[in-house]
Design a protein that fits this description.
The protein is 25% helix and 22% strand. It is of the alpha+beta class. The strands form 3 sheets. Strands 1-4-9-10 form a 4-stranded mixed sheet, covered by helices on one side. Strands 3-7-5-6 form a 4-stranded antiparallel sheet, with no helix packed on it. α7 (172-180) links the parallel β9 (164-169) and β10. It starts with 7 loop residues before the first strand and ends in a 7-residue tail after the last strand.
């Protein structure tokens, strides 16, 4: 994958967190502990992420984690909550910030490689990262595809609010809820992104 293959990055969050995000930016797991917020984190995954350290870096929970494309296994598992969620569109310029890392799968996995950004992009397969689905009749191929869909961009500590370009929501109800919390950037309805 090349730098020009990444038009934007995605951050999945409950709409209830957006007012705080607009004020403080996107915060790492460790920094967000200081603020009241709703978490989408699955306890079993977070237990693994707590123990993980980014090679030549810091604990994984010291990073904000972004996806290349939010139509992935994480959002699939949360599709029933679509009316309360949004996907924030983050400027791809964060790839050029200092000490950003790129993973070739979910950062919690023991099989995931971590590489510096933006050079780490060359190790990602664009077709797999942006694929419509990750299913396959061969379980090994399916595991590889599912892993690629969960590739992450890890940004140390926080991402300033001025890096937010807009948001995707699943429906009119979610759009109204997002506007109500003061989100003044473009909001696009994309039911397909949310598996609707």
């Amino acid at each position: 994958m090349n730098r020009e293959d990444v038009p934007e990055l995605h951050y999945i969050t409950p709409i209830a967190n957006v007012a705080s995000i607009l004020e403080y930016g996107l915060l790492s797991h460790n920094r967000s502990k200081k603020l009241q917020h709703e978490s989408l984190a699955m306890p079993e995954i977070q237990a693994t992420r707590t123990k993980k350290v980014v090679p030549r870096g810091r604990p994984l929970h010291d990073y904000v984690n972004l996806y290349f494309h939010a139509r992935n296994p994480m959002l699939y598992k949360r599709q029933a909550e679509h009316q309360t969620l949004c996907v924030l569109r983050i400027s791809a310029t964060v790839l050029d910030l200092p000490n950003v890392a790129i993973t070739d799968g979910n950062a919690a996995s023991q099989y995931t490689a971590f590489r510096p950004s933006p050079d780490g992009l060359q190790y990602l397969n664009r077709q797999d990262v942006y694929a419509e689905w990750w299913t396959d009749s061969d379980p090994i191929v399916q595991w590889r595809k599912k892993s690629a869909k969960c590739a992450e961009v890890l940004v140390p500590d926080c991402i300033a609010p001025n890096n937010i370009l807009g948001a995707y929501v699943s429906c009119e109800q979610a759009k109204a809820a997002l506007a109500k919390v003061g989100f003044g950037l473009p909001i696009a309805i994309d039911a397909h992104l949310f598996f609707q």
